[in-house]
Each structure stands twice: as structure tokens, then as C-alpha cells.
Write a structure and sequence with these properties.
about 100 residues; mainly alpha; 5 helices; about 0% strand
Length: about 100
Amino acid sequence: MNTLAHTGGPGPWVLLFPLFWAAVVIGIVTLLRRTVWRGRKGPWEAARTPQGAPGPSSPIALLGRRFAAGEIDEDEHWRRLSVLDEQFGRTAGGGPA
């Protein structure tokens, strides 16, 4: 009878099956994270606003849209932007001004 004990054991090939199934599980999790688990926002919404940029409903973006639509003039835009930049801009986090 030819058993594993006489042939030197299963060898390194015994790792093939667990590694294969680990790769399958990692691939499924990666696929789900990229598609389904993003929440209500799709990949197009995440790519539209880069990191650190004001979001679509931020006060600075709203002020820019009002200025572009002609609802406020340039002086009022810059005056309000300086106030908003102190509260919501780069200096609000305590970082370098």
C-alpha cells in the first residue's frame, strides 16, 4: 500500500487549495467593496469631488454658485468668502494659514 508516509508527505502542494480559496474570497470582497458596498453614492460621485475640495453643498461652493449666477457682486463675494474661509476653509482645522 502506497501511503503519504512512504512518499515523503504531501509536499508544498498541500498549500495550493487554501491559497486558491483565500484568493477567491479576497477577490469577492474586493469586487463587493468596489461596487455594492459603496453605499448610495456610486463611484462617479466619489471621483467628482477630490479629497479636501468643498463638497457640492458646502457654504463656499454655494457662495461660488451664487456669484456665478450673478446674484451677488464681486465685492460681496470676496467679503463673504473671507468670512467663510475663516470658518470652513484651511484655517479652521488649526493648520497652517
